[in-house]
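User: Can you predict the 3D structure of SDR family NAD(P)-dependent oxidoreductase? Sequence below.
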Amino acid sequence: MKLAIVTGASRGLGAALTAQLLADGYRVAAIARDCSPLPEHPQLITLDADLADSQLLPLLLERALAALGDGDSYTLLNNAGTVQPIASADALPDEATLQAVALNLSAPMLLCSHFLALTPADSPRRIINISSGAAANPYPGWAVYCATKAGLDHFTRTLAAEQAQRAVPALAVSLYPGVVDTGMQAEIRAADPAAFPNRPRFEALKADGELTTPATAAARIVGYLHSPVFGSQPVLDIRQL
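Assistant: Sure. Here are the predicted structure tokens for SDR family NAD(P)-dependent oxidoreductase:
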């Protein structure tokens, strides 16, 4: 049995990834603050948790793996994230900034660490960290989002370099999924233009029908997960494939 853990799994891209993995025969542990929107499935395990609470993460990963049981392969998809706070660097709210760093960066780093420590080192293991083009491009108003995604990219590069030295390396990719029609995009379009001057661009993407559906994005991501070239680049934009 192929096993997978998906964070931010209750809606948007995370829910679509969960559905695609289940359709492909995986047993999935879905993690979100509230997993109740997910339809029941015999191979689905749901765990409600706040991933910004870093102290809970070791136990959470242990519970997920225990519930999944033994498998032929293990996959971790770190999808949970937030674009908030949308504010210039001279006006960042303290609490929201700390929450975003915890969710966007600390959580995937720690979950990767515990995933690697707790899964069999001789089994096929793959990690996808959902990143963003904002990791490589500065957007005024997204100082926190850009910085945390850039940190996630470089963490993934380092993890991949370390694993390359192992007898059976785990493969890790920080993946840009493109512009996906999710709740995060709605938040962006609702942002104060004074705080986020690029808002008109994202409004135009929605108006012009240029957003990718979550289901389409998930199918491409899971297809790449199964690809023999997975992991050949530690940071990748799915649109380049």
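Strands lie at 2-7, 26-32, 44-48, 73-78, 125-130, 171-176, 235-237. The mean pLDDT is 97.
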